[in-house]
Amino acid sequence: MAWARHAEIPLVIGFFVAPFEVVLAAHVVAGITTLLARRVTGRVLYNAGAFLIEVTAAFAVAGLVAGALGDPGGMPWPAALAGTLAAPLASTVLAMAAVRVLRRRMQIGTVVRLAARILVVGFVNASAGLTGYLVIANTPGAWPIVVAVSIGLVALYWAYSDLLREQRDMEALFDVSLMVARSDHQVAAQPAGKAGEIDTGIDLDEWNSIAERIKDQLAAGRVVLRLRLEVDEPMHVLVVGADLPDEQLRPDDPLLRLPGANVRHFRVTDGNASVRGALSARNAQEALVVPLRSGNQLLGLVEAHDRLSRWRGFGKYDVQLLGTMASHLATALDNRRLLATLRHDAYHDPLTGLLNRPGFRQIASEPLAERAGHPTADVADPSGTQAVVLRLDLDIYSTVSDALGYTWADRMVVAAGRRIRDVLGPGVPLARLEGASFAALLLDRVPDEAHGLAERLRDEASKPYLVDRLNVEANAMVGYACAAMPGDDGEPPDVDALLQRADVAVRATRGGEEVRGYAPSMGQIFLRRFQMVTQFRQALEEGQVSVHYQPKVSLPGKQVVGVEALVRWVHPEFGRINPDEFVPAVEAAGLVGALTSFVLDEALARVRRWLDEGIEISVAVNLSVRSLADEGFAAQVADALARYDVPARLLTFELTESAVMADPQRALPILGELHELGIELAVDDFGTGYSSLAYLRRLPVDQVKIDKSFVFGMGTDLGDLAVVRSIVELGHSLGLSVVAEGVEDDASRDQLEAMGCDVAQGYLISRPLAEDRLEAWLQARTARSLGHRDETVLTLLT
Questions:
Q1: Is residue 662 part of a domain?
Q2: What's the CA gap between 550 and 619, in Å, rounded?
Q3: Which residue ranges run through the membrane (predicted)?
Q4: What is the mean pLDDT of the chain?
Q5: Among 295, 315, 347, which residue terminates a domain?
Q6: Are 85 and 126 in contact (CB under 8 A)?
Q7: DSSP letter string over 321-371?
Q8: Contact at 8 Å (CB) between 441 and 367?
Q9: What dihedral do alpha carbons 750, 755, 759, 764 form, nearest 10°?
């Protein structure tokens, strides 16, 4: 406020005892002298003009009121009172105009409250001065009474001013809290930061406004706000008010090393030499200093230098206000760091520090949306630069985690992330999606450049990894998708669509071609798989799915000892679907239980019909890893055997080592229950796993099946021949029967027979046959005779 407090009293008396010129000069000189005493030098001209306008407006209003009362030559007291009230209102209007010129907003409610407060204070002061003057002028001996009344009014005013100050302090505290809350809201809305960095989101302009508000409320000549933006970094300094000298502060500055979180008041008159030196370095006479702490961590400091509005300097109210504000600011900084940490954790992978899937989606959405909103010829032209989403998958993660544990697998993932980052550089958004899968966003790249970078990534990620002093070989597959290719709706694809396309490209990679770019034809893979999964139950009900049987014969007797039940699906749209395609999809969708139940029922029904004909042939059914995780599976099998009245010895379950290794602690008890029922268990694809010997002795198995890849190579590869011979000898040494699958020629059969292999299965004997064709095959190619159990035995005709 331009006019000095209590200026109404001398002004109202001046109307009666002095002419306009004298009152004007006295008012201007007193006001400027007060400002200079308070060391307010930046607004002297503005305040001098305000003082002139105050007195001019006051005498103008007083003259108008006096004329209206019919006494233009004199000065009636209502005119003096009205003129006195006009002075602060005129300065207020001038201040509002200045705010408007500076293009700063001020709410109407604030203006009304300010004008009302000015009128109330001005009316009390003017009334007191006017009453005292009239009493003394009319009754000269009454001055002691006027003095007593004045003392009472001063005491009342002092009490009122304290209440007013508390109200202003509360408003200031509310304003600071509101600024902090707005800043926190902006922090919470900020996007994910760079990988490995926690962005506290401190807006220095916002905190500069907070420092301005503290300075105005404390009427300080300078406020210095020191903030530690990052841990173990020097504090950032914000200065509001008088310039802070450039002199470097000493490391042991007493104003910067405060214990606790209380406000300290330092003065040059305290007598402490180090404090005087610290204040002198700041060109200040006194300072209020309070640290901003979160527990034992120093987040910053607030310094207020040289109070201007009181001769006695900073008081207890200033100390209390600054302490309360500092508590709010410390809480705000602590909350800001917590918000930044939570935001970082929400958008980053905790293992590698890279972006996670939500973080990658948020980071990549903005540049992709910008390019979609500003299409260019380059985007439409596949040969031009464009955005590319690249995905890399390591195929060794699950194997390492199973063999050595997740700790070592995680270390390998961290190492892979570092290698990818080294190839891409620091500015490329990189994310770990899940497991050992990574994604990156490349901007302004031509397809050939993206393909070359993908090959470099694949080569680097495929180098051996040192895991627990072991060199682990790895293989990486890379797929990428370009944003120039429109989506199904003709619009540019978003992040999720590009990630899905890159995933399709990864799945389309094959041996010898581990880097693939997405092509529209690949998109049919997902659609086809989705249709298979959603239509599978309907296919079971409508008879599209059937069971074929591949015979198994004993060596050397050539008796048909069993069949393997193999599922087949003839789709009305896709035709005959390979089991290698639909079985994994059905298993991933959680429908493998229905498939296993269907095959088991069909197989047991077939065995029952053979038993009714006096023929004893066993049937083998393949087991899924999900079946071995079902604690009620053994009970379901026992119920099925009872329903079809089939002896348990005529049912064989074939399982792969990988199915058991997926969760051996859960699989082994279930296998034990099946074995106790009398069901035979066979290890399928034996020799292809990593822990065959370690787990073979623990599994309650009766058979091992030699993988067909070794049988195929026996005739041309001595290594495969040695593997087959070793498996036969190992199986027999453990008391197991050995089945060779993939027997396709007489030479292989003869070699297996010479090794002592027990059972052969393959195209040499028969392809998988539908039930009716199997009956025809049995009648045409087997001879019937009675066995030792007086049951019909089927022997192949030579």
A1: yes
A2: 10
A3: 12-37, 44-69, 81-102, 114-136, 142-160
A4: 79
A5: 347
A6: yes
A7: HHHHHHHHHHHHHHHHHHHHHHHHHHHB-TTTSSB-HHHHHHHHHHHHHHH
A8: yes
A9: -20
Helix boundaries (H) for 568-632: 579-588, 592-612
One domain, residues 236 and 258: yes
First to last CA, the chain: 119
Beta-strand pair 545-554/575-577: unpaired
Q: Which amino acid is at 293?
A: R
pLDDT in tens, 642-660: 999 999 999 999 987 767 7
**Within a domain: residue 734?**
yes
Are 277 and 227 within one domain?
yes
Residues 200, 127 within the same domain: no
- Whether 204 maps to a domain, the answer reads yes
Q: What is the pLDDT of residues 270-286, one digit of tens each?
A: 768 888 888 888 888 88
Pairing status of strand 703-706 against strand 680-686:
parallel
Smallest CA-to-CA distance from 368 within 392, 386, 349, 347 is with: 386
Q: How far is CA 749 from CA 75, 103, 555, 712, 727, in A?
A: 135, 97, 8, 11, 16
Tokens of 367: 């540049």
User: Is 421 among the domain residues?
Assistant: yes
Full-model pTM: 0.50
User: Phi and psi (nearest 5°) for 300?
Assistant: 170, -175
Give residue 287's domain range: 196-347
Could you tell me if 322 and 378 lie in one domain?
no
Q: Is 295 in the same domain as 394?
A: no
Instruction: Give residue for tokens 């002298």.
Output: 33
Asked if residue 412 and residue 312 are part of one domain, the reply reads no
